[in-house]
Design a protein that fits this description.
The chain has 18 helices and no strands. By secondary structure, the chain is mainly α. The longest helix is centred in the C-terminal third of the chain and has 33 residues, at 353-385.
Amino acid sequence: MTMTTTPARSETLWRHRDFLLLWGGQTVSEIGSQVTVLAVPLVAVLVLKATTFQIGLLTSAEVSAYLLVSLPAGAMVDRVAQRRLMIWCDVARLVAIGSVPVAAAFGILTLGQLYVVAILTGLFSVFFSVAYPSYLPTLLTSDQLVDGNGKLGTTQSFAQIAGPGLGAALVGVFGPAWAMAGDAASYVVSAGGLSAIGSPEPRPAVPVPGERAMMRARIRAGLAYLARDPILIKGVAWSGSANLFVIMVEALGPVFLVRTLHLRPGYVGLLLALGAVGGVVGGLSVGALSRRIGSARISWLSMTVFSLPGLLIPAARPGGWVLLFAVGWMSWTFSSTVCNIALLSYRQATTPPELLGRVNAAARWINWGTLPLGALAGGALGSALGVRTTLWIATVGGCSAGLWLFFSPLRGLRDIPRAAQR
């Protein structure tokens, strides 16, 4: 089966009420989350005067849950009502993120609180992100998944444009701590959209005695299924390797822009927004690229060729040369969006429904489990070698990660064949 969409199916999603509720709520929530992505490091840098290593540690705390709880989260998601779980995750993140501007208003905000908020929001984000792709196939048919994932991927990339731009305005007017109130409010919209979905959700299985042993078995089943599929395993190897280096850029980027390039905090958000344009273009064009180049070929080609301008990121200099950072970031957001949509759609379409939550969790454990390690490494290397040198290491490593896909079965294919589907 090729990773393509048909016009008829694409058009029907615009009249699919429940998908639009899911998509609309997530659009607002993703924009709000990008405000926090900008605001948290600026709070640490400008308000709390954190060191480079402390900023790396803060980023590591935020993503540590992906390494620690992704696997059990997948087993649990398969046993609960996924939509209800996502609603509660939104409520929990609303409380955690909302505590930052409240503490700032009373003058009691500390770096320790930021660490706690980062850990809690990361924990609930893991459960939400594992449930999300597992819930989507209950709303859409298999031949609508590429279109649906393309729209959701475009939303994420659009949020990376609108969020930092909005965040830059909020930071300029209210300060970085109060800017996070916008993210807290966005979770209200997300929870409301999920609550309004009317499609029935499949009833989760009833827990039975020996649940803990069965959970371990379910976790092993998800990992085993992932390991048996040569396309899936090379895909997560690429993503895990790339994320190890990309998180270094995300953690140290604000430090580099503010302290090395002397960019005003408000302009940091605008520069990141400009760089995220590539992701929107990737999400909108993945269907056409898959048809023209091939759904298998586009995945490895995007990460071995289209990502190479990412090497411009550490070459940025003060003044107009700061735009090199945006150009490099644009190429990475474009290429990763195209590749992720193709590989995610393949995973959703080929994995049996009763295994999908566990396989998604296993993939995320590998994909995102490297994030805290990369953030810690970025903070340590940034302190020891300097921020710019660390960014060179990160960009070379990130561009090289695409070799996992080049040396995989995908290289010999134009499209992912029907025979590979289960």
